[in-house]
Amino acid sequence: MKHSLAPSILSFDLTNLHESVRTFLAAGAGIVHLDVMDGQFVPPITFGDSYVRALRSIVPQAFFEAHLMTLSPERHFEAFAEAGCGRILFHAEAGVHSYRHCQTLQSMGVEAGIAINPGTPVESVVELLDVVSLVLVMTVNPGWGGQSFISSALEKVRRIRELRPELNIEVDGGIDPKTLPIAQAAGANVFVVGSYLAKAPDLTAAVRGLMEQMG
């Protein structure tokens, strides 16, 4: 199973983001993780599809995934797909038509991903495991970077891995050199990293260090 590092741009300096993205991609990170927040599902507001389009023009070959922390994610599917996102994730907590949303994304030629918050049980996504390419288990409460890792969330990673041995399982929140190996041992294979990389004195070295840990 492929292991991937997905730096979140949320924690980086947006005024110099293009340099940071080029640096972490060159160092070996395989995914650009885009945290899209609407100020309703979570309090902060981040950016929209126009920002993603601008970033796409700078790194045209990179794989983008949009993590929609929004109340009505289906309203944004088309815009982010057209902006160049190869995978779009939405939250199970955001509505009652998750299966249909996955079908919609697949019809657009985009990978569908489902995310669950720390307080949401695995049962909420069990019926979707055959129609998603990835399940994102939040290991912090969504909305802000720099939070402490919630280790109890890893039990959900273990359960999903038992149910679907080949499915991509992503963890997001508090991932650093101490928590990444723990999450990997639980069964995660895609790792969103934000604050740790943004604060690193040497971004290239930090990315390569995490890549070495993944093996």
From TrEMBL:
Cofactor annotation: Co(2+); Zn(2+); Mn(2+); Fe(2+)
Catalytic activity from the UniProt record: D-ribulose 5-phosphate = D-xylulose 5-phosphate
InterPro entries: Aldolase_TIM, Ribul_P_3_epim, Ribul_P_3_epim-like, RibuloseP-bd_barrel
CDD domains: RPE (cd00429)
GO molecular function: D-ribulose-phosphate 3-epimerase activity; metal ion binding
GO cellular component labels: cytoplasm
GO terms, biological process: carbohydrate metabolic process; pentose-phosphate shunt
Top-level EC class as recorded in UniProt: isomerase
Alphabetized Gene3D superfamilies for the sequence: Aldolase class I
One matching Pfam family: Ribul_P_3_epim
EC number from the UniProt entry: 5.1.3.1
UniProt key word Isomerase: yes
Family: Belongs to the ribulose-phosphate 3-epimerase family.
Name of the featured protein: Ribulose-phosphate 3-epimerase
Species of origin: Fimbriimonas ginsengisoli Gsoil 348
